[in-house]
Amino acid sequence: MYRDVYLAIERELRSMTGILDIALTDGGEHADLASPVAFALAKERRKAPAAIAKELADQLSEFAAKNGITVEAAGPYLNFRLGDDHVRQAVRDALAPGYGDLPALPERLVLEHTSANPNGPLHVGHIRNSIIGDTLARCLRKAGHALEVQYYVNDMGRQIAIVAWGFTNLPNEPAPDEKGDHHVARIYIAANRALEADPEIVSSVDRLMQQVEKGDPATVRLFRGAVTECLDGFKVTMARLNVRHDRFVWESDFVRNGDTDRLLGRISHMKEVHQDDRLWVDLTEAGYEKEYVLRRSDGTSVYAARDLAYHIWKGRNFGRMIDVLGADHKLIGGQLIATLRLIGEQYPEIVYFEFVSLPEGSMSTRAGKFVSADELMDEVTARAFHEVTVRRPELPEEERQQIARSVAISAIRYDIVKISPEKSTVFDWKEALDFERQSGPYIQYAHARACSILEKAGAFEPAFELASPSEIALAKQIARFPFVLEKVAGELKPHMLATYARDLADLFNAFYHYEPVLKSEGITRASRLTLVKATQNTLQEALGTLGIDALRTM
């Protein structure tokens, strides 16, 4: 209902004023929605914004009455409030399974995320990419988008050539119970140490890169085997994080099928392209001084060329492309977009994220100094198990372990996604696992509390008589859920859903604190239980969209 009212007000204001951006926003404590559109009209109408707001409010009175809302001018602002019918309908809507689902849209989208080099385990820096990407994917699907999620496998770069050299020239037996990605990392680290000790090995690595690009069968098998072993380890890690991809797209496929050569042939005649001993694009007109190299002096293509071929393929198969990239890829991402625009191809929307770190400091796979995502999850799970045991010692150990696993993933995913992607963050163990504060487990606990209330209540007939401020505030927050999903999908900002879920848990806890539910009687009891059920269902849908288990007991 909130979404419907928002869209109706937006259409009416645009029609009345002729202004497309009417800046309709949350009204905070003063209103459900507010607009400063009067400021934009002040110069044209030669009146004070407050006077214009008053005129607009008067003109909107019939529309407002027809749509069950109230409108008033508050100085230069227009304030809108939902009527009782909207509040009741919001609670009624939120009782339905799949609440928040928006109508299906025809356009096909492709979202690429994670795409870490397969030369060692995913670490805490990588998983911010995974969690942002997976949360976006869940939001986009719930908002009605037909979506394919892809992982772009870098199986031809220098790092993979170093791994391949290590598998050929160093002891490479896996240790007992060693995950594939950890095994590959051990070989990669050892190979780098060998390279540092004997720089002549570089020529052997270069030769491997030339052979794999030419399609030498033995070299292709060597590269593919090492990469597959690492990817198998990645998949285990991502499954623990509740992250999944629909397709793994291999970089080498765009060499094998000729797309990379076709791209280089197509672009080579453009005035912006230079060929000396290399082939590179001059993007100074697009604001990039650094040469955008696509082919090396030895004739091998570079990652950028294959990435362009990949994006051309995506652009021709999907209506919208979204990439999730670390902030250290801003130059590469900008050059990619500039080149795709130059050759008249569709270009991606890129969500850049700053890095998440641990208090222990920075990480480097090459130097062997990193905290793997597996180690992070193991440590957080152990801490969560201790917390669950303190709170629920009477539960069987197996149940406490199961709760701890869900709580740990909730703590990690929420703590990472709650921060706007463009801001860096440090993962705080204590804060992330705090059941009493605004964390993932805190939201899970609100859901579990709602489940407990409903279980104790037994059967009841739904009722919708809400009167107290805490009841109304909670119902209005429930009403916002579909709108928030649409905003996240449109603006690609998954932290907005994290904020929404936290605020919903806050309002539910305030309602529970101030209003007796089980001890109330008659229609008041039924209405409050209905509100609890609507909250429980909305929390369940929000948590699921965040990739977090909606636990019924904690």
Over all CA atoms, what is the radius of gyration? 28 Å
CATH superfamily of the largest domain: HUPs
Tally the helices.
22
Strand content: 5-15%
The share of residues in helices is 55-70%
The appropriate CATH architecture of the largest domain is: 3-Layer(aba) Sandwich
Mind summarizing the main beta sheet? Answer: 5 strands, parallel
Q: End-to-end distance, in Å?
A: 32 Å
The top-level CATH class of the largest domain is Alpha Beta
Query: Class by helix and strand content?
Result: alpha/beta
Spans of at least 5 consecutive residues with low confidence: 362-368
| Multimerization state | single chain
- The CATH topology label of the largest domain is Rossmann fold
Our count of domains comes out at: 3
Major sheet: arrangement of strands = 7-6-5-11-12
What tags apply to this protein structure?
554 residues, alpha/beta, Gyrase A, domain 2, Rossmann fold, Isoleucyl-tRNA Synthetase, Domain 1, 5-stranded parallel beta sheet, 4-stranded antiparallel beta sheet, 22 helices, 56% helix, flat
